[in-house]
Design goal:
Mean pLDDT: 78
CATH superfamily of the largest domain: Spore Coat Polysaccharide Biosynthesis Protein SpsA, Chain A
Structural class: alpha/beta
CATH architecture of the largest domain: Alpha-Beta Complex
Order of helices and strands: EHEHEHEHEHEHHEHHHE
Distance between the termini: 25 Å
CATH topology of the largest domain: Spore Coat Polysaccharide Biosynthesis Protein SpsA, Chain A
Shape: elongated
Number of domains: 2
Length: 309
């Protein structure tokens, strides 16, 4: 009999977890030919998430939990869950029920009978989501498709079931700065997409603010693309030519000292652009610096429900 590991990153999800556990348990009970385990990863929550997960592990032998010493981020939580998963198939799900558990049965059937390595959910819309956030998200995915040359389209998120081969391939990528959507695409494997409609959270509030989403987007681009560096070089060459042309024009115009303010503005503009692109290069250097430290991706404070504990 196959084993399915359901990996659930959690950050301050005390309101959503009971309903998630109830609905998902009902869904997996209907999967014939497979047993399931739940691996909840508490990403340094400040509410009672850890207590709820401990109660799950005490009441249900299928439930395990890992609590981080602090908030390391969703990417680290997903990696920790995958490291501790023992299933033949592994699933990533959010605790807010925006990933429909009813699709798990179909995903398992696809992997068992159709020869795919991965079956993932394709979000068809953004119902219940802030309009500004929707516009920014769509714009980000358009940019990242062009710069990274990887299959990371809008709606192609973390909700997916994969076989053990793909899971082990992801675990081989041990970089500190992780962007899982890019990693899924990087490792390849045959993926079937199942469309589903977005729904509002079952409880609680989203932990993703616009600034955090912006940082997440920048991390994604810098992790899988050198396009910003190329853009910096191209822009530098164009601005250099523009400066020469502007200088020649100022000299030939015969305006004398009146051209000085123009040149001053031009110098300030070029210095500003230069500093901007130096910042881009600095981002790459800083990420390489963090990788060279070989720090752990996460630190475990407490575990429960595992046979070794």
């Amino acid at each position: 009999m196959d084993k399915i590991s359901i990996i659930v990153p959690c950050y301050n999800e005390e309101k959503a977890l009971p309903e998630f556990y109830r609905v998902t348990s009902d869904a997996v009970n209907g999967i014939e030919g497979a047993v399931c385990e739940f691996i909840f990863v508490d990403d340094g929550s400040s509410d009672h998430t850890s207590d709820i997960l401990e109660s799950f592990a005490c009441a249900d032998s299928r439930c395990r939990y890992i609590s981080f010493s602090r908030n390391f981020g969703k990417e680290a939580a997903m990696y920790a869950g995958l490291q501790n998963a023992s299933g033949d198939y592994c699933v990533f799900m959010d605790a807010d029920l925006q990933h429909p558990p009813q699709l798990l049965k179909e995903m398992y059937h696809v992997l068992k009978t159709e020869g795919y390595d991965c079956c993932a959910g394709l979000r068809e819309d953004r119902t219940g989501e802030n309009k500004l956030r929707s516009i920014l998200s769509r714009t980000f995915y358009k940019i990242i498709r062009k710069t990274c040359k990887l299959d990371m389209g809008d709606g192609k998120g973390d909700f997916r079931m994969m076989n053990r081969t793909m899971a082990d391939s992801i675990l081989e990528l041990k970089e500190y700065n992780r962007y899982m959507k890019g990693i899924f695409s990087f490792v390849g494997f045959d993926t079937k997409w199942i469309p589903f409609h977005n729904v509002e959270r079952t409880a609680g509030e989203t932990k993703w603010s616009l600034p955090s989403l912006f940082r997440y987007a920048i991390d994604g681009i810098l992790s899988f693309s050198s396009a910003p560096v190329t853009m910096a070089g191209t822009a530098g060459a164009l601005l250099f030519l523009a400066a020469i042309v502007t200088g020649i024009w100022a000299l030939l115009s015969g305006n004398g000292l009146t051209g000085i303010p123009l040149l001053v503005c031009l110098i300030l503009l070029l210095n500003g652009v230069q500093m901007f692109f130096i910042s881009i290069l600095g981002q790459y250097v800083s990420k390489d610096y963090m990788e060279s430290k070989k720090r752990p991706i996460y630190i475990v404070k407490k575990k429960g429900g595992f046979t070794s504990t």
